[in-house]
Amino acid sequence: MSTPSSLESLIEALRCLPGIGPKSAQRMAYHLLQRDRKGAQRLADALQHALAAIRHCERCNTLTEAEICERCTSPKRDATLLCVVETPVDMNMMEQTHAYSGLYYVIMGRVSPLDGIGPRELQLERLLARACDGVVQEVILATNYTNEGEATAHYLSEMLKSRDIHVTRIARGVPVGGELEYVDAGTLAQAVRERRSLAE
Amino acid sequence: MSTPSSLESLIEALRCLPGIGPKSAQRMAYHLLQRDRKGAQRLADALQHALAAIRHCERCNTLTEAEICERCTSPKRDATLLCVVETPVDMNMMEQTHAYSGLYYVIMGRVSPLDGIGPRELQLERLLARACDGVVQEVILATNYTNEGEATAHYLSEMLKSRDIHVTRIARGVPVGGELEYVDAGTLAQAVRERRSLAE
Question: Which residues in chain A are closer than 8 Å to B31, comparing Cβ atoms?
């Protein structure tokens, strides 16, 4: 073998990145060492720094550098509303809508029995404790409308209802600007089933 | 903004990897911090270690941890043959054929005027010095049969011929196991033009 062992270790280490197989990892390693040693150094430093600095917010569980994140400490947010999302990216999407000004809880995942991820792995009792702080009046479930997101929402709603917490789920239906002709049948079927009265 | 700055720096740093855009970099950063902190630490260490340990072989220019790589110091290799390849991966491909037992020179790139990479950037004078050591009797050009690989081979052959060094180029033609019906016309045209006499 002529591949230096530290190069092999780097190729192996790059495979921890999601979606990167052996061929891509090899290409990345050679690229970094041949063409972008500065970038490689920056990446090593950024990883080190992020690992040291980033932790979970004690209230909403998102990634943050503070004990409690900026959003959770903001006096401008409506603390009676708690929106549950799967990931920090989903939280950012919600924020971009400007349609919500309450607080969040980030599960950091979803119930997924096939991957061995159940309620215990997700530490959902922390969410329960958060929702039962006496201030929260409504928990809005904004997990994905995938099978796993739905299973998570179902589990959470059962868990929260047993504590007499008002639980809602974000609506599903035809997307804004969507034409019926191009919407899939499943979405359309749900949109019919969950039709709302215009009198409300 | 609620994204911690060290997270933003990590996302930015991940974009130095080839083929990774902003969305993938974000997904990777969240994956590492949420699900694989050990992997992230291993990657940081592997980068650091590879940057410190890996350099270019003084004889063949490949990536190595020694001053002169294992292959260049091996007494089993035929030092009268020097095969020029674009990258260490190409060198590994050549080795896997078991059809070559000479030495190598790795250009670490190719002439590519559009990317501003000319003979000077590739330090091709180092290859010339290597080929003129008095032991090498034949230089085999094994750059790719792409436009850039061809341009590189052309430049090298002119450079080496002016020093009276015997230069050859790996053959091109119909692949082994290839059927004429499925070979592209360009390859077939070359295979006809470069037909060899069976008397030889």
Answer: 17-18
CB contact under 8 A, B10 and A47: yes
Q: How close B59 comes to chain A (CA, Å)? A: 14
Pairing outcome for strands B55-56 and B63-64: antiparallel
Mapped onto helix, strand or coil, the DSSP state of residue A95 is: helix
Does pTM surpass 0.95? no
What is the value of ipTM here, to two decimals? Answer: 0.70
Interface touch A88/B62, C-beta < 8 Å: no
Instruction: Report residue B92: phi and psi, to 5°.
Output: -60, -40
| Closest CB to B51 among A34, A41, A95 | A41
What's the burial of B86, exposed, middle or buried (CB within 10 Å: 0-12/13-18/19+)? buried
Q: How many CB pairs under 8 A join A and B?
A: 168
| Per-residue pLDDT tens listing for chain A (200 residues) | 456 789 999 999 999 999 999 999 999 999 999 889 999 999 999 999 999 999 999 999 999 999 999 999 999 999 999 999 998 988 888 888 888 889 999 999 889 888 888 888 888 999 999 999 999 999 999 888 888 888 999 999 999 988 888 999 888 887 877 777 777 777 777 777 777 766 54
Q: Cβ separation of A33 and B95 shorter than 8 Å? A: no
User: Nearest 5°: CA angle at A189, between A156 and A139?
Assistant: 20
Query: Going by DSSP bridges, is the β-strand pair A78-85/A138-141 parallel, antiparallel, or unpaired?
Result: parallel
